[in-house]
Amino acid sequence: MFCITRYCQSIPLLALLTIAAVAQADVEHRFSGFATLGLVTSDNPKLAFRRDISQGDGSYDDSLEWRTDSLIGGQWDSSWSSNFDTTVQLVAKDRHENNLNNSVEWAFVRYRPVDGFDLRLGRLGTDIFMLSDYRQVGYAFPWVRPPHDYYTLLSLYHFDGIDLNKRLNLRQGTLNLKVFYGNSDQKFPTGLRSSDTTRLDFDVSGASVVWEQNDWKLRYSYANVAINNNVAQPLIDALDAAVPLWPEAADWAGMTATKGRNFSYHEVGFGYDNNHWWAQAEATQLRSATAIVPQSDHAYLSIGRRFEQFSLYALGGVARPTREATIVTAPAGYPSPIAEQLTQLAAATARNLNGVRIHQKSLGLGVRWDFAAKMALKVQLEEFRIDRQGTNLWLRTQSGQAITENQKSQVTSVSLDVLF
Amino acid sequence: MMKLLISIILLGFSNLLQADTLVIVNAQNPISRMEHKQVVDLFMGRSSVFPDRQPAQTLDLKAGTPVRASFYKTLTGKSEAQVDAYWATLVFAGRMSPPKQLTDEQQVIAEVAANPSAIAYVNRQPLPASVKIVMELNTPE
What is the domain partition of chain A in residue ranges? Predict the structure, then answer.
C-alpha cells in the first residue's frame, strides 16, 4: 500500500506525459471556468466563521471577509481520441498552505473504452458526498456555500489515485456505480492566523451508488480513510515519557495516536427537483478509531421554490458528536514542579481530544437570482448555535481562552457566482 | 370557398402555434427516430452514444440564444440557468464533456451535415438533404 502511495504522488505528471506521447490525432481542447466573489460577516466575537477546516482565518465580531468564499477556477479539457480524455483544473482561493501543488484540484486521464464505463487515473475528486466533486462551483448549487454543519469538516477535496465508474442507463432511470482508491496529504491550521499546522497523510478508498429517476436522486456512499502519520506526535511522546509516573498516560497516548488508525463515512443523500420545488438532504455517520478525528453525525435538509429567475430556499443542518467529551485528570501526590508538569500535560491532552469535537446546528434562509446567463447573485442569512464543547468548525479568536458557554452566531453572506 | 379559406387560416395558425424545435442528425446516420428519453440522456450528459451504440457528438448553441432556451425547456422542463448549473456539476466534476458550442443555427446545420456522429437542435426550417430529423419537439403555446 505504501509503495502505491508513493507512486500516486507522481501520477498527475505521469498522466500528462503519457498524453503528450499519444498526442497526434484529432485533438480537441476546451477551456472553461468558474468564479465566486463572496462577502460574509459573522457576529460572534469569540468564534471565527470559516467555510471549511482548511481555512485559517474567517469573520468574527461583524468583520467583513471576502476570502472565505471567493475563488476562481479554470479547467482545461482535452479529447485526444474517442477513448482518451484529460482534465486539469486549477483553483485559486484562500488556502492555509497555498502552492501550485495544492491548487491543482484535478489532473487526470480518463479512459472510456465503451460508453458508460470510465477509468480515471491521476488527481481526482473524492466522491464521498453529493457535492464533493463540485463543491467549489458556486453556480452549480443553490446556496452561497455547501451546508456548513455538513461540509465544513469534510474537506478532503482530492486524492491521487484511481477510480472506476460504471453507468447503467435503464428504462426507468440511471444507475451509477463507482469505486475509488488513492492517497492524499493535507495540512490543516491549528488556530486563527496561526502558522502551526496539523498534517494528515491518508489513503482513502470507497464506493458510491447513485440512482437517478425523473425528478429523484438517491445515493449511498462509503469511504474509509486510513491515516499514515501521527498528527499529534509531540503530545504522544510527552505522554509516553510520563508513563512511569502516570500509568494512565499510556491510554491517553493510544487515544491520541492516528498512525495506522482509520475513520470512515457512511453517507445517504436524497434530491428531488420538479423544476418548481426542490429539496435536498444528506446524512453522514463518521466513525473514527482515533480521538483526534471527531466521531460525529452530520445532516442537513434544504427546500426551495423557483419563481422564474429567482429561487427561495430554507436550509437547516446539524452536527453532533457521538462520543462523550473526555475528562483527563493528572495523578495526585507528586511534588512541585512534577505536579505542575503533569497537570499541564493532562490539560493539553484534554484540549487536543476535546478540541476537535463538533456540536452545532443552524437554520438559514436565502435567495438566488439568476439575473443573466451563467451569473447568479445569492443572499443568505443563517443562525448557528454552537455547543461550548463542540466549536471545532470555527476558529477561536482567543486561543488561550476556553469557551465556557454555548455560543450563537448570525452569519450573513452575499455572493456572485459565474461560469465562463 | 369560405370553408377552405378558414381551414387554410387554421392550418397556418396551427403551424404557428407549433413553434417547433427539430432534433437533427447527419443523413448518413442509420438512426431514423429517437425517443424522448434518448435525446434527454444525450443532451443531459447521461449518454455519449446513439441507441445503436455509435458515438454521438452533441452540438449546442450559445447561452442566451432563444432556440436554446425553448429546446431545453420543452425537452426537460428546465430553464437555461438550471441546465447550465446542471452541466457545471458534470463538467467541473470531470465526469462528462459538455456539448460542443456553436454560435448560430447555420453553423449547427453545416456541422451536422459534415459530421456523421453529430446531433443538434434547430428551429423548424427548410433543411438540406444532408441532415435528417429524428425527433420533433412541439413547444407548448
Answer: 43-69+125-419
Q: Which residues pair with A199 in a beta bridge?
A: A187
Among all chains, which residue has been given the C-alpha cell 456572485? A416
Burial class of residue B94 (count of CB atoms within 10 Å of its CB; 0-12, 13-18, 19+)? buried
**Contact of A84 with A22, CB cutoff 8 Å:** yes
Residue A307 C-alpha cell reads as: 419563481
**Minimum-distance CB partner of A34 among B46, B64, B92:** B92
Across-strand partners of A299? A283, A318
Alpha-helix runs per DSSP H in A233-369? 233-242, 249-256, 338-355
User: On the CB side of B14, how many CA atoms lie within 13 Å of its CA?
Assistant: 6
Q: Does A32 touch chain B (CB under 8 A)?
A: yes
Confidence band (pLDDT; 50, 70, 90) for B12?
very low
Contact by Cβ (8 Å): A107, A157? no
What is the model's pLDDT at position A101?
87
Q: How many CA atoms lie within 13 A of B79 on its CB side?
A: 18
Q: Is B77 left (phi over 0), alpha (psi -120 to 50) or beta?
A: left
Name A35's bridge partners. A72, A418
Q: What tens digit of pLDDT does each residue of A37-67 get?
A: 999 999 999 999 999 888 899 999 999 999 9
Name every chain A residue with its beta carbon within 8 A of the beta carbon of B88: 34, 134, 137, 139-140, 419
CB < 8 Å to B80, chain A? 373
Question: How do residues A128-153 score in pLDDT, each as one tens digit?
Answer: 999 998 999 999 999 999 999 999 87
Residue of B nearest to A78 (CA): B97
E strand or H helix at A406, and its extent?
none
Tell me the pTM.
0.89
**CATH code for A43-69+125-419?**
2.40.160
Cell of B2: 369560405
Specify whether the CB–CB gap between B39 and B46 falls below 8 A: no
Residues of B in contact with A79 (CB under 8 A): 97
Distances (CA, A) of A411 to A344, A353, A365, B28: 36, 28, 11, 59
Question: What are the distances in angstroms from CA A250 to CA A188, A238, A246, B108?
Answer: 26, 10, 8, 72
Q: Which helix (H) or strand (E) holds A172?
A: none
How close is the nearest chain B Cα to the Cα of A159, in Å?
A: 13
ipTM above 0.85, yes or no: yes
